[in-house]
Specification:
The protein is mainly α. The protein has one domain (2-248). It has ten helices and no strands. This is Zuotin-related factor 1.
């Protein structure tokens, strides 16, 4: 039940939560329970549709990325969805400043990829550039697929002592795409990993959040406390009413 309450708090606006709470408090236990279950069912259906749409766009993005690279040789083709996810993960595990960055990324892919295709530094650079050329929605879907695996590890982004300039895997402009739950988790983890006294803190934080720039992260940080308080109050209101209505109310 608490997991479903969390979904309601994350998905519903405050007005919708208040409306649900009014239904719970002004109706019988059976009616309130039915209203709650209906709302949860609608949220789960919405999540399911979003997942299907994201997967469909992910497949299209993969096809478009394949067309944009073209060329010959095993390194310029046969990029599966798993390999694309692995590339995005490697790019963020080995950020700008890593010595021989693209050679390291290519080696990482050759070790962890199950496709059997050997990649060179030139191959991964070409594919990374082609992903950068995708429109924001396609790029977001490619990244979103990688988040599901990346967020489970919550690894600290490696750093290099003798850093040299290297190409960064992000666009120069601010991304106005809505933040996903996975991105929010990665941002919060990065804020903990890199405290305020960390040199080039926001650059490191941006490296830990795939697809987001320094400006994106700084802007999000300004409102993250607001959203945290917002979710806390929503959670408190919803939990109190649900517990009192469905558990403590007499039959």
């Amino acid at each position: 039940m608490m997991e479903e309450v969390e979904k309601l708090c994350d998905r519903l606006e405050l007005a919708s939560l208040q409306c649900l709470n009014e239904t719970l408090t002004s109706s019988t236990k059976e009616v309130g329970k039915a209203a709650l279950e209906k709302q949860i069912e609608e949220i789960n259906e919405q999540i399911r549709k979003e997942k299907e749409e994201a997967e469909a766009r992910m497949r299209q993005a993969s096809k478009n990325a394949e067309k944009s690279t073209g060329g010959s040789g095993s390194g310029s083709k046969n990029w599966s969805e798993d390999d694309l996810q692995l590339l995005i993960k490697a790019v963020n595990l080995f950020p700008a400043g890593t010595n021989s960055r693209w050679e390291v990324i290519a080696n990482y892919m050759n070790i962890h990829s199950s496709s059997g295709v050997k990649r060179t530094a030139k191959d991964v650079i070409s594919k990374a550039k082609s992903l950068q050329k995708l429109d924001p929605h396609q790029k977001d879907d490619v990244n979103r697929k990688a988040f599901d695996k990346f967020k489970k590890e919550h690894g600290v982004v490696p750093q290099s002592d003798n850093a040299t300039p290297s190409e960064r895997f992000e666009g120069p402009c601010m991304d106005f795409t809505p933040w996903t739950t996975e991105e929010q988790k990665l941002l919060e983890q990065a804020l903990k990993t890199y405290p305020v006294n960390t040199p080039e803190r926001w650059e490191k934080i941006a490296e830990a959040v795939p697809g987001r720039t320094k400006k994106d992260c700084m802007k999000r940080y300004k409102v993250v406390d607001f959203f945290r308080v917002y979710r806390f109050h929503c959670h408190l209101i919803a939990t109190c009413y649900i517990v009192s209505t469905l558990i403590l109310s007499p039959n």
